[in-house]
Write a structure and sequence with these properties.
Elements (H helix, E strand, L loop, with lengths): L1 H122 L3 H78 L1
Helix pairs in contact: 1-2
Length: 205
């Protein structure tokens, strides 16, 4: 009958609607599962990238720490060398002053001896004593001249040594500046290399 056909059609339509709804639900679940899996993969990739960045930063910090320690050790070494060189210069100056005072004292004694000898010679009236006095005077003068020459040569030698120490100080300062410049350049090259490595890894990811 017509009513039976209508009920059958409604029943078929209901079944089709239920099946369509089930199909849509299954498709939505599959889409949701695929989306969740994609998000999980992205999360794993981000975790790996984060771990890579942490390793890179740790290495960079280690390089910076090593360079800083090396610079501090070099500064300490240069400072010790500078103090030692200043002490050597002061020691040489003290020796020079002592030597100069000794020369002055000997010259004074020699002059005093000349005066005493001259007084004794003037008081002598015997001819052979006069000859002996002249001979002694010549000998004393020769000795004084020889001593003066020796002392002047020693002073020149000490002066040359002092100039050499000053040149050595200048050379040490120059070497320190060159070393600090080299360490700065090495530090900058290390930082640039680490940054390039991190950038390459980021781009590859």
């Amino acid at each position: 009958t017509f009513q039976t056909n209508i009920l059958t059609e409604l029943k078929n339509w209901k079944l089709n609607l239920i099946q369509h709804h089930k199909l849509q639900m299954r498709q939505e679940k599959e889409k949701h599962a695929a989306h969740v899996k994609q998000l999980q993969n992205e999360m794993e990739n981000l975790k790996e990238l984060l771990h890579t960045y942490e390793i890179s930063i740790s290495r960079k910090d280690e390089v910076i720490t090593n360079l800083t320690q090396a610079l501090e050790k070099q500064k300490e070494r240069v400072e010790l060398m500078r103090k030692f060189t200043l002490w050597r210069i002061q020691h040489i100056k003290t020796k020079q002053e002592e030597y100069a005072n000794s020369i002055a004292d000997r010259h004074f004694r020699t002059a005093l001896m000349k005066k005493v000898w001259a007084a004794w010679r003037s008081a002598s009236e015997v001819r052979w004593k006069d000859k002996v006095a002249r001979a002694c005077q010549l000998r004393a003068e020769d000795v004084c001249v020889q001593l003066t020459n020796d002392y002047e040569a020693k002073i020149a030698e000490l002066t040359a040594t002092l100039e050499q120490r000053k040149a050595e100080i200048l050379r040490l300062h120059s070497e320190r500046d060159q070393y600090e410049d080299t360490m700065k350049k090495a530090f900058m090259r290390g930082v640039c290399a680490l940054n390039l490595e991190a950038m390459t890894m980021f781009q590859s990811k």
